[in-house]
Amino acid sequence: MASNTPLVLRLGTAQTLAWASSYYLPAILARPMAEGAGVSEGMVWTAFSAALLLSAAIGPFAGRAIDRFGGRPVLVASNLVFAAGLGLLSLADGPAPLFAGWLLIGVAMGGGLYEAAFSALVRLQGEAARDAITGITLLAGLASTLGWPLSGWMEAQWGWRGACLGWAALHLLLGLPLNARLPRALALPPPRPHSDGQETGAPPRAPRHVAWVLAYVFAATWFVSTALASHLPAMLMASGLSLAGALAVGALVGPAQVAGRLLEFGGLRRFHPLVSARVAAAMHPAGVLVWMAAGAVAAPVFAMLHGLGNGILTIAKGTLPLAYFGPVGYGRRQGWIVAPSRVAQAFAPLLFGALVERWGAQALWVSGALVASALLCLLWLHPSPATPRA
């Protein structure tokens, strides 16, 4: 990946900024934002969910634009929209400007998070983009580790409005120049079909059901990932751990995600991405079984298995569609495949929170069953001939 290092560093840093200032922002600023804007904290989370839903709708159109023009103009535009949305959010004094700011951020998320970055890489490197995708997720995996303390520091120094303006300034001063330095994508020649309708230069066409299966797999796994990001501490405390113990166990998830991505890069990349995805999808159900069998004492094992699986599945979101469908039309197709996972993310905290309130840690049986169903879907698929084994 040596020749890719400058590109990976630029995109990875820009992605860290994009995730920290959007997806991970409410965890720190939701409460002071609600107090300052004169709304309930629930309304802030509702506005954030609306942003996720809008990002799902924007994703396919952003992907199509990347297919046509390359990733640089779309990612640069996302920095400008991020800055505008955060700036508007800093002025919020009621429900209307609050929702307007979050919806602008939702537009930017649809064209500025992982899916757009993956599409930009595929547009530049074609089927050789797998290593670069892994490198970007390694860097952006630190988004919460860096973003939460920085949001907290800015809020303590300048208030929540100043924190929003601080993130907006970082998009203009750091994110925009990084994305603006991406290489220009070459124009794609028009595909020439064979007599059987298959385009020359394209990989063998995957069966149509593969896209639907991948959409379900990503939606199920990201529902669980988002749900546990919101409710894991509560479940740990319901199992008998103290607040300090629950936070300590929850802190294991982030490093485990990075370890999973290192595992992908160091060993699993020798295999078809489907193998990596199967290994990853098996980890959360295994962790649930361990926790339920041994009790809260096994919660650290669960947290590490859950984090390892999450880390690898993040990469699979980029590499599996590439392996099955190839680089032609990747951005648009990626946008449609990932859209259901954005919808699942929007409703995950509310729906899973109701299960935790009713059943406590036993709600993990539901998350384990969901990810196990995704694993069964992956076992049903066959490795595509589109990507040769290394």
UniProtKB/TrEMBL annotation:
PROSITE patterns cross-referenced by the UniProt entry: MFS
Gene Ontology CC: plasma membrane
Record localization: Cell membrane
Transmembrane parts of this sequence: 44-62, 74-92, 98-121, 133-152, 158-178, 210-229, 235-258, 279-302, 362-381
Any one GO molecular-function label of the UniProt entry: transmembrane transporter activity
Domain of life: Bacteria
Membrane topology according to the record: Multi-pass membrane protein
Occurrences of domain Major facilitator superfamily (MFS) profile (ranges): 7-386
Major subcellular location class: membrane
Keywords: Cell membrane, Membrane, Transmembrane, Transmembrane helix
Keyword Secreted: no
Keyword Cell membrane: yes
Protein name per UniProt: MFS transporter
Species of provenance: Hydrogenophaga borbori
